[in-house]
Design goal:
- It is a single chain.
- The protein is mostly helical.
- Helix content is 83%, strand content 0%.
Length: 225
């Protein structure tokens, strides 16, 4: 159960918390458009890319453990296919952090279809078999909450009126910060899991990533307003 709770926190709650802190301390995030953009960067980067890549790793290289956590029979090749579906979402999330056009809507559609579809499958399984394994229940929170957050913030961003063009340096700096936090947090999760201490690994990964986010904020402070 701990693993799935950590995943829900890392890839659904943490992106929103991190974005809220960055918005609070970035003096350059002075328009509604910029504030919403920060939330989207963290949701696409850590939420979609991080979740997708970690899901790919789990389904391909830890498939029996993941299957046990869901309460399903291990050894099915369909699980490997699901791993590559997760990898596709991870790649979409990475690209979406660097794009601000319709590619983001396409990514949200993919996340929503897979998330809602997976939840329906899990609910049917619960109704038919009574399978209340953590991966069959807790994971549904993220499956539904992540698309809902993406839809909310992306719609708000599209509606936001901002006559001023977004500063390229500001955008790139935040993108780099998201990249560091995502890579270090997911690496910490993987290493911690390998040593039987996923919570400790995630904590260290998040702290290391937070250092790079803080450095990015200091760089932004030095930029002229």
């Amino acid at each position: 159960m701990t693993l799935f709770i950590i995943r829900v926190f890392m890839f659904t709650i943490l992106p929103v918390l991190a974005a809220a802190l960055v918005v609070r301390f970035d003096a350059h995030a002075d328009t509604r458009k910029k504030k919403l953009e920060i939330y989207l960067l963290y949701l696409f980067g850590l939420g979609v890319a991080g979740s997708g890549i970690s899901g790919w790793f789990g389904h391909l290289f830890l498939s029996d453990i993941v299957a046990e956590g869901i309460g399903w029979e291990p050894g099915s090749p369909f699980q490997l296919e699901m791993g590559f579906a997760n990898l596709a979402l991870g790649v979409l999330g990475l690209i979406a952090t660097a794009r601000r056009d319709g590619f983001r809507e396409a990514t949200v559609v993919a996340v929503t279809v897979i998330g809602v579809g997976a939840t329906i499958v899990h609910l049917i399984d619960i109704a038919e078999t009574g399978n209340l394994a953590p991966g069959n229940t807790i994971q549904n929170i993220a499956n539904l909450a992540r698309p809902a957050l993406l839809i909310f913030f992306l719609r708000a961003s599209r509606k936001a009126e901002d006559a001023e063009p977004m500063d390229g340096r500001w955008y790139v700096t935040h993108g780099q910060a998201v990249g560091w936090l995502t890579s270090l947090a997911t690496t910490g999760f993987g290493v911690g899991f390998a040593f039987g201490a996923p919570a400790a690994g995630v904590t260290l990964g998040i702290l290391a990533g937070a250092i790079f986010v803080w450095i990015s904020l200091q760089r932004l402070r030095a930029m002229p307003s």
